[in-house]
Structures are given as structure tokens and as C-alpha cells.
């Protein structure tokens, strides 16, 4: 077949392109601008255009898009004019990975880190998996890799329901905590989607899920009742136990020496450990290989130190993620304070979780909350970041990012940690804050 991928320079799209090409398909694509990824694709024999142009799309092609591609994209418009097949990136990945052991990692939060842990540990153990992860894996340089082994690890996105396009041998669910209600409409519909995800596991496959999370616990019960094999991990009552810095599996203790911080990352490591066991990696070896994982971009990522103040960037944009990040920062700060610039992501999420965001952010010593990053949404009347700050004990609403950076830098003193948090362009403030310090 002949495929054209719109947005081929993205981490998820680029590995789909490589996988399709490896199966003998004709593959090309375009991205908004030139990049090292496009150059790499060209070196592998894939045509990659810098810039979108309707002329790139010709009769007979199957066009691949992600949810980020707007209906006004000239190539997508042309594809529809020609009545071409247009499929989602997840559908193309499923087609490209037929016959491989598919590991799909889902959950409202934790899936990027867990996917990265699995990929790096399996690579360290000698399996050389392919992977498609929605963030840069530190030490690899991207979130995509075409491996020689029979395993593919993919971050399975529940935000738009596209995770239901996969048929995994191993499905990992870090949590089933309601999010993306703008898409699903209700918490019940969100939960049903995860039930459907379990139904996508191939016969004889395995569900790995966190027993500590109420939603994932219910999913384990649902899957077990449906005859699906399950492996529960967690801090109590689970098949695989997390006890401090140790994993306990079938009575044997396996110490962890992780480079990434936080209790949540020990749980993520347990999920990755379980995947390795299912794929035949010896338990002691898998535990050691987890130590090779150095993190993913924008997950507690250091931006610099100036005058004893550390500046760290984190992708946390859900209340549970914010809380976990701030608890980790509190430990890391020792006797210092934790200062935050937080940028809410999506009007609907801010509206639905304002009270929970306020409670989580109050774990910090000083917080400046900026204007909402809209992403794919139009404004909702009456929904601003003040819905969050009005519920906080020490939060300040400052709409402008640069003014927020100036304020937080001016309040810092040696020993403090400054966190920039959110899924939008707040990440660009790190270097600015370091400079202001």
C-alpha cells in the first residue's frame, strides 16, 4: 500500500512510518517544518516533506492523521476531495505491528513514564523492542525507535478513544481516573472505554494494572470476571508488591535502584517489571534493567541551577499528577521551599477539577497560576484560572507567563525548587526563570 502521514515528524508518527516501510509499504509524509526527524527518515529511504501542501497527496494513497491535525490542513482537505481512506495514527500503528507482541500502556497519567521504563528496560535486557511513546526518552533522544525484536511498546492514548484501535498481548493500566470528560461526556463513559480496552486484549493475553487505584482495581475485577488473565501490582493486596525500594514477587525480594524519584515511579517500575516477566525476562535481570531508565522529557526535568535555586519542569496537568510531583519536589527540596508556576490545560479540565487542583497546589509553598492553555478547546464562559486560585490558601492568578516567571524568580532564595508545571507552553519558561535568577 501507499501511505502518506501528515505530521510525520512527530515521535508517534515517525515510528509508524518506519514500521510501515519495514513491512514493504511505500511511505511518505510531511511536517510543518524541517527537523532532525525528517532528515533521519529521508536517510532511511522515506520521503519526508517540510511544509504541508495539497500536491503531496495523490490518488491511491491512504492518509494517516493524528488527533492534532486540523480539518483545515490542506493535505487532509485534498484527501477528502479525492475520497481517500483517512485513518488515525493508532490504526496505522496497529496495522504496522501485526504479528508482534504488542504492549499497550494506558491510564490518565503515568503512561509516558511507564512506557519509557518498559522500552528502556527491555532494551537493556537484550530484547530490542520497537516503541512509540509520546515524549522524549532521555538517553535515546526521541520517543520512537524501530527495533529488531518481536516486541512493540506503545503509549495507548485514551483521551480520544484511539487506544481501542489496538489489540495488545499485554495491556498495562496505571489508573482509571476520570479525565478527558470533554470527549467522553461522563465518568461512566470514560470507565466503559477501559472495559472495552480490556476486551481488545488478544486471547491468552494479560492485563497488568495498579491495585492501589480504585478505578484500576475495579478494572482488574471486571477483567478477571471476563476470563482475562490479570496481574495486579501495588503496595498492598497485590500479586506484585511494592515495599519501599523493593519489589516482592512470589516471595522473592528484588531491590530497585531507580534514577527517577517518587513513590509513583516505584509503582510505574512495578508495572514495567510485570511486563518483563510476561515476556520471559528473568525477575532479577528485569529489576536491574529498570535502573537504566533516566526519565522522559518534561517529567521532573532539570532546567538549571542558579544561586542555589533549582528550576525543574514537569508535564503534570491533572490533579493527581500535580500532587505526586509536588510530593516528590518536597522530598527533593529538603529544607528548602517549593515554588510553582502552574498553567492549567484545557478549560473543561479546569472547570471539572478546580477544587482538586487547588488542594494539590496548596502542597507547595508559593504558587502563581497563569491563564489556561486552551489546546484544542474554545473558551468556556466563566472558566478562568481564578476558579483554582480562589479555592487556594496561597495561590495568585497572573495571566501572563512572563510576568509569572518574573514574580516567582523574585521570590526564590537559595535551597528552593522552582517548578514550571503544565502541558502547554509553560515549559518555555524554564530558561527564562534561570536567567532571571
Mind explaining what this structure looks like?
- The chain is α/β, with parallel strands linked by helices and 437 residues long.
- The protein is built from 15 helices and 21 strands.
- The strands form three sheets. Strands 8-7-9-6-10-11-12-13-14-15 form a ten-stranded mixed β-sheet, with helices on both faces. It has a six-stranded mixed β-sheet with strand order 16-17-21-18-19-20, with helices on both faces. Strands 3-2-1-4-5 form a five-stranded parallel β-sheet, sandwiched between helices.
- Helix 7 crosses helix 8 (214-225) and helix 11 runs parallel beside helix 12 (347-361).
- It starts with a strand and ends with a helix.
- The mean pLDDT is 94.
Number of domains: 3
Q: What shape does the CA trace take? A: globular
Mind summarizing the main beta sheet? 10 strands, mixed
> In the CATH scheme, what's the topology name of the largest domain?
UDP-N-acetylmuramoyl-L-alanine:D-glutamate ligase
CA radius of gyration is 22 Å
- In the sheet with the most strands, the strands line up as 8-7-9-6-10-11-12-13-14-15
The pLDDT mean sits at 94
The CATH superfamily name of the largest domain is Mur-like, catalytic domain
Instruction: Specify the helix fraction band.
Output: 25-40%
**Which regions contain 5 or more consecutive residues with pLDDT less than 50?**
none
Helix/strand/pairing category: alpha/beta
Number of helices: 15
| Residue fraction in strands | 15-25%
